[in-house]
From TrEMBL, chain A:
Stretches for region Disordered: 1-32
Any single Pfam family the record assigns to this protein: DUF742
Top-rank taxon, per record: Bacteria
Protein name as annotated: DUF742 domain-containing protein
From TrEMBL, chain B:
UniProt entry tagged with the keyword Nucleotide-binding: yes
Pfam family, one: ATP_bind_1
Lineage: Bacteria, Bacillati, Actinomycetota, Actinomycetes, Kitasatosporales
Superkingdom as given in the UniProt entry: Bacteria
Keywords: GTP-binding, Hydrolase, Nucleotide-binding
Species assigned in the record: Streptomyces olindensis
Gene3D superfamilies, A to Z: P-loop containing nucleotide triphosphate hydrolases (3.40.50.300)
Entry-linked SUPFAM superfamilies: P-loop containing nucleoside triphosphate hydrolases (SSF52540)
Listed name of the protein: ATP/GTP-binding protein
UniProt-listed InterPro entries: Gliding_Motility_GTPase (IPR052705), Gpn (IPR004130), P-loop_NTPase (IPR027417)
Length: 133, 206
């Protein structure tokens, strides 16, 4: 028996064709979650942006939802984990975190994202870490 | 939304907390068709019990040729499992088990754009279900390796025959694995990292 045959594809020219009626590719504008970064710059919220509370306890003014989030990120925690523990969709995290960043109640640590040429020292660190697993 | 109240929210166990020194996180995606073993692989290497993030997909995002049938006008919840591996006290790696259908990918901003690379999990009983996802990764320039998840009743082909059938570029690694075993899943991730490292040595593939 022979397996079915695939045909390799080539990298799409930039920008990649994105038929908007299918809702694929380029994120819908309302799904671009822009938050104020640590130095007031704007950054897209990523699943693995790390969030850390600035103070040990939530202020009395915090809403229950904000207080829950602040308690969870007493130690650094990714947006994905916050979303999982709070049972909130990723899209809801954008609004919640923008409020908390604006109120200077949390820090956001930007993720490491893929570069055109991979960062060798990063990959070596990851390989060493995996080796210890 | 009815919020439960902060006292009822279970957070990470004390031993699952990341150190304060953690500066940044990177991510990789494990992608493949329905039931191919994505969640199993995430769970076998993760240091935390896998968690789930959900997103709601509204009408606009649902294609016409899918199997949502008569419900295709309503919102659909798409879930993605993920796990975590601490690399150093400054760096943490996240693994996302992502459904193969590309129409789900845009739900999570930057999931594929930012991932260091991808593992394509393949089941030889349904090889063709992974064709589309591999093509999409190629189009988007996301580097990937192929892991054949060896189910007991699956047809077995020599690995070179699979390489030919999948029309893989000669440098793309392909290997067998057992997603249930930590060592095997770790080897797959290691192969991906070595592959990415080789790309760094030769410059990016275009
Ligand atoms: N024999 C064998 N069984 C496996 C392996 N990996 C996963 N399974 C089994 O296959 C089934 C599906 O695995 P999952 O990890 O849930 O697959 P998935 O890709 O997350 O599935 P969906 O999220 O539903 O698309 C489970 O019953 C696993 O125990 C493997 O390497 N070998
Ligand atoms: Mg799964």
């Amino acid at each position: 028996m022979t397996p079915p045959q695939r045909q390799r594809r080539n990298p799409a020219p930039e920008p990649a064709p994105q038929p908007s009626q299918e809702g694929e590719g380029k994120p819908n504008p309302e799904r671009m979650y822009v938050v104020a970064g640590p130095d007031g710059e704007r950054a897209e919220l990523d699943l693995v942006t790390l969030i850390v509370a600035r103070a040990a306890d939530p202020p009395p003014s915090a809403t229950p939802e904000q207080a829950a989030l602040l308690r969870l990120c007493a130690a650094p925690l990714s947006v994905a984990e916050l979303s999982a523990y709070l049972s909130l969709p990723f899209s809801a995290m954008g609004t919640l975190l923008t409020e908390l960043l604006t109120a200077e109640l949390v820090h956001a640590r930007s993720p490491i994202v893929r570069q055109a040429v991979p960062d060798r020292s990063l990959l070596e660190a990851v390989m060493n870490g995996l080796q210890r697993l | 939304m009815d919020f439960k109240g902060s006292d009822t929210i279970p957070g990470p166990r004390a031993e699952d907390q990341l150190p304060h020194t953690t500066q940044a996180a990177a991510k990789i995606v494990i992608v493949g068709g329905f039931g191919v073993g994505k969640t199993t692989m995430v769970g076998s290497v993760s240091e935390i019990k896998p968690l789930t993030t959900e997103e709601t997909m509204t009408q606009a995002g649902i294609g016409v040729d899918d199997n949502f049938g008569s419900d295709s006008k309503t919102a659909t919840t798409v879930a993605m499992d993920f796990g975590r591996i601490s690399i150093t006290d400054q760096l943490v790696l996240y693994l996302f088990g992502t459904p193969g259908q590309q129409r789900f990918w845009f739900l999570w901003n930057g999931l594929f754009e930012g991932a260091l690379g991808a593992v394509v999990l393949v089941d030889t009983r349904r090889l063709e279900v992974s064709f589309d996802v591999m093509g999409r990764l190629e189009e988007r320039g996301v580097p990937f390796v192929v892991a054949i998840n060896s189910f007991p009743d699956a047809p077995r082909y020599p690995i070179e025959e699979l390489r030919t059938a999948l029309d893989l570029a000669p440098d793309i690694p392909i290997m067998e694995c057992d997603a249930r075993r930590r060592a095997s899943s770790r080897d797959v991730l290691m192969t991906l990292m070595r592959f990415l490292h080789s790309l760094a040595m030769t410059g990016s593939r275009t």
